[in-house]
Amino acid sequence: MAPDIPKEQKAQVITADGVMSLKTIPVPTPGPQEVLIHILYSGVCHTDLHALNNDWPLPRKTPLVGGHEGAGVVVAKGSLVASGQGVDVGDYVGIPWLNSTCHHCTFCMQAQEMLCSDAQLSGYTVDGSFQQYAVANASHVAKFPKDTGVELDAAAPILCAGLTVYTGLKQSQVRPGQYVAIVGAGGGLGSLATQYAKAMGLHVIAIDGGPEKGESCKKLGAEVYVDYLTSKDLVADVKAATADGLGPHGVLLLAPMEKPFQQATGYVRSHGTVVCIGMPAGAKVSMPVFDTVVRMVQVKGSYVGNRQDMVEAIDFFLRGLVRAPVKVVGMSELLTVFDAMRENKVVGRYVLDTSR
């Protein structure tokens, strides 16, 4: 029996004047290669705040429905979506940041689809998951097995936060038994990065601000917490957190502020890797050239992940190795969530219940 699909739905919409509000809009119809998903939950990422503020030098759709961590159930599919593609009506799926790619450019052919110049981005260049029904390209939706009793509210943050930090840890090339420093460890990405790192056998040094975030980081598996608000010498404190005092082998920069991007090369171990993931508006990375060269420090960017990375990130979740500390609120409360983000008061991840 086909699901009953309404004609209209509730959605958080950014209009041309840059204002977001809860509106009633039509339920979209899936294109030939798309599926229509009844969104039950959607995580809230700092990227969504950047989209609202139009912070980045990247053209944004207007009007726009934001969101790119949408978890729900397929209720309809386009004419070219065959059952053999692994997506069918009734399946549990997720809408990630990469809504679609071309599949045939040099990057797509090498499993680097996040670099595709024709990529469409959920909640940025196409409407995303801050609505009750959303369309997505069938080949890019993430898949959750129904027979595992998966909790979609807990699964939603894996679609961006989990994927992004898991891929970043792979990019850092830090091996089991080595140290990784996670900057912004108390937030949505950081809370998952700490758990992925622990599950991968890494020693975690968490860096963030305030005792509440410190307590959360320790509970999630960090061995050391460095509070940048009280530290008198952050570089020295991070180095001292390693057994030999040489500093961490890798650094994940997740914080939405510029200063950590200038500090990281000062405490990363020689021949270590600094991975830039957070994207503060207008921020720049600078480092002393001589020190970077003679210590053979690598600085690289890591941007979400490919579809195989998504499969692996979800597998950690399904095995109970990672779980974001989520706070579920109604979709009507999204602007309040953004206020908490602006004040750096978010511990873990907010997830929206689209039914309220």
From TrEMBL:
Superkingdom, taxonomy of origin: Eukaryota
UniProt enzyme class: oxidoreductase
Every Enoyl reductase (ER) domain range: 18-352
This protein's UniProt keywords: Metal-binding, NAD, Oxidoreductase, Zinc
Record-linked InterPro entries: ADH-like_C, ADH-like_N, ADH_Zn_CS, ER, GroES-like_sf, NAD(P)-bd_dom_sf
Family to which the UniProt record says this protein belongs: Belongs to the zinc-containing alcohol dehydrogenase family.
UniProt-recorded name of the protein: alcohol dehydrogenase
Record organism: Triangularia setosa
Lineage: Eukaryota, Fungi, Dikarya, Ascomycota, Pezizomycotina
